[in-house]
Design goal:
It is a single chain. The protein has a domain of 119 residues. The chain has 6 helices and no strands. By secondary structure, it is an all-alpha fold.
Length: 189
């Protein structure tokens, strides 16, 4: 007796039913809309506007240059605030430090040198801003041009700063340095 092998039977479809496509592999996380491994992203739309590439992260040179530029601009603004209000303002010192740290961290990335350099730049920017403020006050008091006082009589401006400085002045230095250090670390995330 011989037995005959029966061929495998195809599943019967109901009349009017749609043929089923072969099952696609499902991602491990269960998201059926996730991009499958090896899939090619779709090409950009033909009339889409060109978007420039994002600046590279972890570029220490770009971070340092931007931090120096931010320090100079922030020092000028801080000095202007001091010169017009005739007072040192703590939140302005925080702003000086934070702007420097933000600029360094956003463009420089997570390089461990950047927070330290940002803190040092913040100290210099607050000092320069306070000197600009002193020069504005002296120029206003004597009715002369700011640039003449600041550039021609810089020693007098420094002596006036020394005479006007108090312990709160140095607290503003510390606040700005801390804001720059922490701002750099937070912006680099």
């Amino acid at each position: 007796m011989s037995q005959s092998a029966t061929p495998p039977q195809q599943p019967q479809q109901q009349p009017g039913a749609q043929p089923q496509a072969p099952a696609q592999p499902q991602p491990v996380d269960g998201n059926p809309y996730a991009q499958q491994p090896g899939a090619v992203p779709p090409p950009p739309a033909p009339n889409a506007p060109y978007a420039p590439p994002a600046p590279p992260k972890n570029n220490i040179a770009l971070g340092l240059v931007t931090a120096v530029a931010a320090a100079l601009v922030a020092a000028g603004i801080y000095g202007f605030v001091i010169g017009t209000t005739k007072h040192e303002i703590g939140w302005a010192a925080i702003g000086v430090g934070f702007v420097i740290g933000l600029a360094a961290g956003k463009l420089g990335g997570r390089n461990p040198v950047l927070p330290v350099v940002s803190a040092v730049l913040a100290l210099g920017a607050v000092y320069l801003g306070q000197l600009v403020g002193e020069a504005m006050l002296i120029a206003d008091e004597y009715g002369v041009n700011f640039s003449k006082v600041f550039f021609d009589h810089f020693g007098v401006v420094q002596d006036a700063w020394k005479a006007d400085s108090d312990p709160l002045t140095f607290v503003f230095f510390a606040i700005a340095a801390f804001a720059a250090f922490s701002g750099t670390k937070k912006a680099a995330l």
